[in-house]
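On clarity, I found the account of how folds are encoded harder to follow than it need be. Since the whole study asks how a given chain folds, the encoding of that fold should be made plain. For illustration, here is how one protein appears when written out as sequence plus structure tokens:
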Amino acid sequence: MIQEGTYNDGSLATVINQPCTIKLTVNTNGASGPIGPFTEVTNAIVAGSSAPLGWPGGGWPTSDSAIVIRLFDDGTNGDVTAGDKIFSKNILFPAYTSLGAEYKYGLNFGLATNQGSNDNEAGVGSNHRFGWQINYVSATAVDTFGRITTSNLINVVTGVKEIDNNIPNNYNMSQNYPNPFNPSTSIQFSIPEAGMVRMVVYNVTGQEVAVLLDGQKAAGNYEVSFDAAKLPSGIYLYTIQSGSFTQTRKMMLLK
């Protein structure tokens, strides 16, 4: 008897090599899909080919609502401005996610106005691709509903590295260097015990603009590399949180 199967030829060159947080953002202003223009947008969702995203059944039936991930336009979950019809959510992808991962948005999921189909951004098999690289730690994907492209990834963090073998006695986050900077800078931090570490950049109005780190780290001293090439010049705040420790500093992007 002959058995047939598929062969997985993945390698560290074809997957992200560490967990990566992507802030998915989709502009739904003037949105239109195969069923025509959307006169009103009540909700936005995303589905895709790699966990934690998944593909619902054909036509994306409402009964598969547990498979899709809802995005936000209320100033939470990474959304910058409430009510601007740009929906967002920070999504953590595990290490070894394929560089070829695909995704697609849907609007008004489960509403009768979708004429029986929630798969309403483009035709079958027409999907966005992330366009990330193996060393990405976090980034923001800037998408427009109905415009199927490889993602425009901005606010990219390409490295979180341990800088020595010493275990620090205290929590600390240093001033970024260089500062002012254009467009890249580095931030060092220390944690005396293992735990979740979240580092976020905000603009001066308190809106989240980038997630630099959101994951488990062993005790040690680290350095984060941040590329702000597509942010406007100005003052930004960056904050670290690990356990009960929080600290905030200012940095200046000067182009």
Observations:
- The mean pLDDT is 90.
- The chain has two domains: 20-150, 157-253.
- The CA atoms of residues 15 and 99 lie 5 Å apart.
